[in-house]
């Protein structure tokens, strides 16, 4: 685990440097009600919980990679990314939350549920329970949670219409479950900030998606960070407006090379468990009811 700290010169947008988390950084001395940095005090820490989107899949490589890292960069904050590929809501609660609670962070970004939607045992109530417990625990530890509502499934997803319908229904259930989790956490512990990623897609269309049409593109990661920054400003934070430039779009040969070298192997690994489950879900929720209605 690493923590990324802002560049020394607050007036530049230079890439942040990395320090190992075990280095003594000292407590965050800035009071919770004060968001402007006081000279001589450590920058506030943003801790990121979630899955591959939080981990930065789809973004360009570098010291600032992933939407939460871009958000921390804008807020001149340190950043600790706990996101992991394949993480489900229960994994975030059981594995990432305990680390976040002892991190000394002032803000925790939470992006969860996408991998739950893809599983045959998807249960919105369980996701709601895990999300509510995560948000409540963060709030009780004086860490401000910022939850992202995932975007709806659109026509850009490279899948048959039946698959898109199933995933669309499930994503809608996921969004509803997360909203209930927010209400439960707020009733138990205090305010939870939310950002709707659907608004990001509505603003920029297909450009927010990576070549795999599942994860955000470099543009998508930055736009999500910008939306989150605006929400934080309304809550009293200060947005520096610093943005790491979007890298040039790779040439067609490079994109094809990425698909062959990384995309297809990833798809093959995930297909061993996801595709059979997804096929079972489509049969149960789409094909079987249609056949039964014809009898």
Automatic annotation (TrEMBL):
<dbReference type="InterPro" id="IPR036514">
    <property type="entry name" value="SGNH_hydro_sf"/>
</dbReference>
<dbReference type="InterPro" id="IPR013830">
    <property type="entry name" value="SGNH_hydro"/>
</dbReference>
<feature type="domain" description="SGNH hydrolase-type esterase">
    <location>
        <begin position="48"/>
        <end position="223"/>
    </location>
</feature>
<dbReference type="InterPro" id="IPR053140">
    <property type="entry name" value="GDSL_Rv0518-like"/>
</dbReference>
<protein>
    <recommendedName>
        <fullName>SGNH hydrolase-type esterase domain-containing protein</fullName>
    </recommendedName>
</protein>
<dbReference type="Pfam" id="PF13472">
    <property type="entry name" value="Lipase_GDSL_2"/>
</dbReference>
